[in-house]
Amino acid sequence: MSTPYRHSIALLNLAALQAQLSTTMLPGEILLASGTQAGPTVAFTRGIPASTTQGAAALLSERDLTRALLRDAGHDVADFGVFLLRSDRRPALSWAENAGYPVSASPVWTVKESPHVTDSDELVMQIEAVARLASRRSPGPTHPRARYLVQKIAGARRIELSIAHGEVIARLIDNEPATADDLHPDLEELGRSAIHDVPGLSVGRVWFALDDPRHPSAGECKVLDVNPRITFTRLLQRDEAAAHHAATRLLQLEADAQGLHLQSRSTCPDAVLTIGGVALPERAAAQVTQFCRANFPALSVTADSSSEIQVSSTGDAESLGTLQWSLIQGLVPGVRPLHVSIDWLR
Question: 48-72: b or e for each residue (b if 16 or more CB lie within 10 Å)?
Fold first, then answer.
């Protein structure tokens, strides 16, 4: 069976298991990781760590408010206008005409890279595409006050930095992996500053636009967005080893921030995976057994009468993590657990 580590939460889970932390996955892309002793738990929800406050996450879900905050903090933010989805398109067209083409239109509630448009007809088509996207989402974006951005295109290159507790853990230039040597050092410092200037934020991604990442001229670099969720999707598509390294480093830095100090271990003990909150545990156990026989024949499945199913392993973190992810995502027919945990047997 192919592994699920094309997904950010699954990649973080693998990093935690390789550090021999006990992990629990819950629906909604929630990951909890802890040591063997009673102590701190490292938590991620949809890639957002527990060190990020709810206020910071809420603020960053509104890109116009984020940009206003960054501008007030002294950052050079790309020119943009904000408009209601359920309103006449003429104000947006007028803004674009005054700002000068090319521009792009994108949702206010998510960082979305949109093609550049060069005239009013193309802009209207792009705005309508955003409106259709909103109609397929939750009630939030379709609310009468839901907004979209029209942005003046600034700079030929797009830079994305993933930053965790002051350390740049991943770099992309035009969605391609980059190294520190590909960027002027001032850009990384600018990224750290942008994260720092959002209250309650220590982990996130920052986007810039400029013409030459190695030799930015004064006033050229524009801050585009800040987002509290670090994902590794683009990096995984181009450089899987770099994505694994970034996920491991994010876990280490977040663990340090939460007071959970990871230790290197030379041995890999046995582990047990517990599937909790399943209906009809005996029937579910039969389904899990069949799934494991087909995909993980070395794993041993047992069940008890307390609606829990256990799977034993001889220290195979990747197989257990793949099974854990498959279960919580509902990929095992007839099994919908409330939680799936892995504990190491010392």
Answer: bbbbbeeebbebbbebbebbebbee
